[in-house]
Amino acid sequence: MEQEFFEIDGKNAWAEVFQQIRSESLSYNFTYKDARKAENKNLNRYRDVNPYDHSRVRLSKGDKDYINASHVEVPAARRAYILTQGPLPITTGHFWLMIWEQKSKAVLMLNRVIEKNTVKCHQYWPLGSKHDGEDEMLLTDVNLKVGFLGEKEASYYTVRELLLTDLESKESRVVLHFHYTTWPDFGVPESPSAFFNFLMAVRESGALNQDVGPAVVHCSAGIGRSGTFCLVDSCLVLIEESGCTETIKVRDILLAMRKYRMGLIQTPDQLRFSYLAIIEGAKQILAGQQSSKKVPCTHHSEIQDGKIIKKQVNNIDVRGSGSKNAEVECDGRQLLIEKDDSETEPPPLPPRTTKPLTDISDQRLIPEDRKVFTVTDTLKTVYSDSPTSGLVGEKWNDINVIGEDISINNKDSSLLLENNVDGELRKRNCKEYTDKTAVTIHKKRQDSETWRPHSLLLKQISVGLVVLFGTGVLMYRYYVRG
Question: Which residues are catalytic?
Fold first, then answer.
């Protein structure tokens, strides 16, 4: 899946991929006649977003059974959701009646009430006296009451507890309201990590479990942001169960989900973000699985003295970290799986080699996080001005050699070069050569210092002779030829 993401991203082909998904899903031959009925048209927030007849949610009470909401299922992930539009003032009662009848534990709201100065959703829950609002909301058309119990705010979402009461039976249920407040319309969340944290908070509440009714997920139209959430959650469930990402086909899963509700995921950016969120979530989930010592199982072979004699659980090899046995949680009990000694220890590492690193066959032994280069070109030496200071530095190919390592600064990065065995030998030979050279230069400079006074005296005698010679010539011209 990651490879698919990078291929699409490298070609900047998200618009093309999104259009392919859209074109294929437009070929679905599903009807939405109920949504187009005259008595139901005013119950739809958008004219072009309608629930299919075969998957729409049907209300049991009241004079209408219609609501713009769809059952969306991903059987492979054992996930079931209800995706719906943001309630209108005239559909708020229908919205809460659906939650009551479907026995949903949570509502996931992925939009704000007002976005870009436009009302995207009716205020369908009581704000509470904390926000200068009412603590209760009566829905007389469906004979329900919604009460505000409390809320907890995070940096980018809020979790509320609401009490839903049937006024006829006096039965009440607590409904969790997860409100993602920083996801823009037709846009994507701030980061995949922030979205993943929100998703995990929803999961930890038990709202997505199979033993409760389907979670109600909505944005404004109930297809873009809502579809993104359900696609990411379902794909992560499949990755968690399979233990890998290679078998996950995101486009196929999205196309299957679009058979339940039209238009899920509205933009190429939302499709790209879905991939990013799945990749980010998969890394965290798989890392948690690798660090866990317990291996989940749903079946076991024969038990002898409280031990399962089995080398595999759910077709997964059980391997410990140097131990012979591994704990297994099976049927609510902690049992022990025995393993062969031959499977306990990993294979030994290859022996160290003394070959030079220029041999390609040995480069696999070099740690991946360190790029190693070998330099075999001409050695240059650098001296200071003082003859007693000796060797200051060495250069290979104009690269300064410092200590045990060679430091290179290039345009993009700083790489670490290590000397191999041959390099050390060359260094010692060069050191001996440069030491001898330094002594020779020092001796020459001492000789030049010794001859410096004599050269000064010779210069003075030469100047005197030139002056006497010039004076004699002038006197000759004046007296003899005068």
Answer: 219
